[in-house]
Amino acid sequence: MGFKRALKLMDIKEKEPNKNNKLISYLMRFNIFIAMGLEKTGTMALGLFGDVGRVQVFLHLSIIGIFKGLRIRKVMEQAYYIGSKSTVIILFTGLFTGMVLGLQGYYGLRRVGSEGMLGALVALSLIRELGPVIGSLMITGRAGSAMAAELGTMKITEQLDALESMAIDPIHFLVTPRLVASLIVIPLLIAIFIVVGLAGSYLIGVKLLGINPGIYIHEMEKSIVFKDIYHFLIKSEIFAITITLISSYKGYHCGHGAMGVGKAITQSVVYSSVLILIWDYILTSMMM
Length: 288
Prior knowledge:
The chain is mainly α.
């Protein structure tokens, strides 16, 4: 408010007949605009760090809930909800991702006379990168958005307040089972994605393009080592935590009304997708 008032006073002074103050007035106006920009940047930075801190507290409370005692039935319900509802989309995206990789990889390798390496190329690409990333993005769109919608609806209908009034911790009751179920189910879904992708690549490379099946399987087996499986498991678990944490947090702290729930769903999908890509780069650079 002080900056805007200063600008109004300067506008009044510029209307006065004294021409010598124009340069000083322009410089002051420029400095005020810079200060306003810094103020907005600082406000955004403080809001960002505040959100990061609140998300960390939310994660810690969810993890502490594991040691308070798990409700196995709730975990199984969430595992079914996340797993079975996401299986179809995982099968379709895994199959066509493998088919595209097989087709593109074949014509790329044929230029250097290495068509037999197609199995190794597709296996490493799916296990180390594309499987965890694309699979997690699909799960974010399907299961993550559903988590945010469900918790957001419970928030605006005051069901979370009702749980607190009955001395039930909503995070322990609702978020912790989702976190545990995601840690179990999402790596399995990504493993299905990889297996189906390898099958799709095999169909394209061996059945359609005529690569020797023995060479295809041999090169695939020879190229995969335990370190690749380790990368896949670590990324899958980190992505599972990211999806569940962001989706649950946004739903738990959504705004009022249908608009608040819709905004929470959108933000959960966008933020989770961006964080998955950021985590993928960080984990890849650390484990190379």
